[in-house]
Design goal:
The chain is α/β, with parallel strands linked by helices and 311 residues long. Helices cover 44% and strands 12% of the residues.
Length: 311
C-alpha cells in the first residue's frame, strides 16, 4: 500500500495447509513481496510459504532475515536439516508458545500417574487396543518395541521388500540399505509435520511422555502414533519400486514425493492437533486457566488461523 500502513496477515489454519517442502542449493529471500528460492543463476522459484506447514532446508541453502520473518508471520516452521533430512540441526518457531498449554503439558509429563495414563492412551491409539494392565512406562515401552519390530516385518513382507531390521547411522548414510534409507527419509518428513503441528498448537516439542530427554521427544511420541499407517507403507512401497528398477531419481526424493501425496490424500495434518488434545486429556489433569494478564491468541476463532499462531 502506498500509505505504508501495516496490514496484519491471517495465517491459514494448519489443518488446511500442504505438508512439507524440502529445499536446497539456493537462497531463500523475499523479492517483490514473494517468498522465493533464488539459484546461482538468479532464477527464482516462488514458494507458497503461507500454505505450507514446514520448510526443510537441506545443505546448500541460505536464507535471509526477510524470508525468516515472513515465514514466522505466516506460521510456517523452518527446519535446518542434513542431506535427505536424516539430521535436524535447528528449527524456528512458527507461532508463539501458549503459557497455559505449556503448563498443562509439563504438569502431565511431571506427574508419573498422569504420564502413565497418557502413554496408555498412546498405546491404544497406536495399536487399536487397550494397553496391558498394571504395566509401567518402561514395561509398555518394551512391549511396544516387540510389536513394532513385528509390524516392520509384516509390512515389508506385504510390499515384497527384503528386510532384516531397522538400522541406519546418520553419519554413514550410504551404508544403509534401500529400505532403511526410505524409512529414514519418510520418518524425517513425518517428524517435520508433527513438529509443525505441535508448535502451531502452542505446545513444546521437547516435553515428551514415552520419549524423554531429547529436543524432539514429544515429536517422536506423536509421530509414532501415525508412523505405521503413513510413512512406513509409503517408504516400503518406494523401496519395492526401486527393487523392480521402476523408480526414477534418488530414493530420498521419491519417498518425499510419496509422503507429500499421502499426507495430502489422508489429511494427516488435520488429525494431528486433535490427537494431541486427546492424549493430554487422557492425563486426567485439568488444563490451567489462563493468567488474567496473559496475551490472548492473536487470531481468534472467527479468522482462519489456529490458536497457537502469532503475528
Amino acid at each position: 500500500m502506498s500509505t505504508g500502513e501495516y496490514v496484519p496477515l491471517r495465517p491459514i489454519a494448519i489443518k488446511d495447509r500442504s505438508a512439507i517442502v524440502f529445499l536446497k542449493y539456493g537462497q531463500l529471500d523475499v523479492v517483490d513481496s514473494a517468498f522465493v528460492l533464488v539459484d546461482e543463476n538468479g532464477m527464482r522459484v516462488q514458494i507458497p510459504v503461507g500454505g505450507l506447514a514446514c520448510l526443510m532446508l537441506e545443505p546448500g541453502t541460505r536464507v535471509t532475515h526477510a524470508a525468516i520473518a515472513l515465514a514466522a508471520r505466516v506460521g510456517c516452521l523452518v527446519v535446518w536439516v542434513g542431506e535427505a533430512g536424516v539430521r535436524v540441526y535447528a528449527a524456528g518457531q512458527p507461532g508463539g508458545a501458549r503459557a497455559d498449554r505449556l503448563l498443562y503439558q509439563a504438569a502431565a509429563a511431571l506427574d508419573e500417574s498422569a504420564r502413565l495414563r497418557v502413554v496408555r492412551a498412546m498405546y491404544s491409539m497406536r495399536f487399536g487396543e487397550e494397553a496391558p494392565a498394571r504395566r509401567s512406562v518402561d514395561q509398555l515401552r518394551g512391549i511396544e518395541g516387540a510389536r513394532v519390530r513385528e509390524m516392520y516385518r509384516n509390512l515389508a513382507r506385504l510390499h515384497g521388500v527384503s528386510w532384516e531390521r531397522r538400522k541406519y547411522r546418520a553419519d554413514e548414510w550410504d551404508a544403509s540399505d534401500v529400505s532403511n534409507k526410505c524409512l529414514s527419509a519418510g520418518t524425517a518428513c513425518l517428524y517435520g509435520l508433527c513438529e509443525a503441528a505441535i508448535l502451531a498448537a502452542g505446545y513444546a516439542p521437547a516435553i515428551g511422555f514415552l520419549h524423554r530427554g531429547k529436543p524432539l521427544s514429544f515429536v517422536y511420541d506423536i509421530a509414532d502414533i501415525f508412523k505405521f499407517e503413513s510413512v512406513v507403507p509409503a517408504a516400503f512401497s518406494v523401496a519395492a519400486r526401486v527393487a523392480r528398477g521402476d523408480g526414477e531419481g534418488p530414493v530420498e526424493r521419491q519417498v518425499r514425493i510419496a509422503c507429500r501425496d499421502m499426507f495430502r490424500r489422508t489429511s494427516l495434518l488435520e488429525r494431528i492437533i486433535p490427537t494431541i488434545s486427546q492424549l493430554l486429556d487422557a492425563s486426567g489433569i485439568a488444563p490451567p486457566a489462563e493468567a488474567p494478564e496473559g496475551q490472548p491468541p492473536a487470531i481468534e476463532e472467527m479468522t482462519s488461523g489456529d490458536a497457537g499462531h502469532r503475528h
